[in-house]
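For the sake of transparency, this paper describes our internal protein records without simplification. The record that follows is passed on verbatim for readers who wish to inspect the format:
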Amino acid sequence: MSTTDPTVVTEPVAAPPILSTGALPDETTVDAAMGGGETMGRSVSASLSSRGGRLIVLALVFMWTIPTFGLLIYLVVLISPKIHSKGELPYLLPTEIVLVLLAIPPILTSTYSGVQNVDLDVRDAAKGMGMTGSQVVRKVELPNALPLVLSGTRSATLQVIATATVAAYVTLGGLGRYLVDGLSQLNDPHAGYPAMAAGAILVALLAIVADLLFAIAQRFLVPRGVSGRFPSAAKAAAPTSVSAGPVEVTVGPS
């Protein structure tokens, strides 16, 4: 018969961890797994959309690198003989095509960047409120992407205004006529450099006026929640001074 010393305290031996795959997980494990699966689904969809977006951006950047003047001359040679018209249409149509191609890359690139920068939680919250896909685009994504969209539109407008002067090289008028005529008459002190300077100043002023108009339009079109303009909230959040008199506290038996 074995005896044990009562002064010796024996600690229970910890059971080995259960390695069986048939153990039932608790609620915390299930929630973590569901959250991880949802995050993984978001990252996969975002990576797929980013791959397609990169291809689009690369194509737009390639369009951006095409020489505008060379493309204009090529289209005039290619299109103008096929248009039998005595007006300016044989030269106006290639010029408009070139200017439209010049304006597309900055607008689409900024629009793509603006939509991609919308927080995924904001989109999920909109879907959770019952919005359809088109409503999410119109009421959530586009308002949040509107600052970048307008920024790209402003950049495209400035580029088109500055590049439209090349239309004078294909017998069209406009402010570029001052530059072309002045360049062809450099020896004339009245029609050489003065004409070129006047044309350049007018183009610069037109670009500045167009940019200011877009800045004013952006101020009224972009929602205050996106632009961060809260004048009333700023006044309400102003610190207020409250004066309090001395407080006497008496500690003693009740």
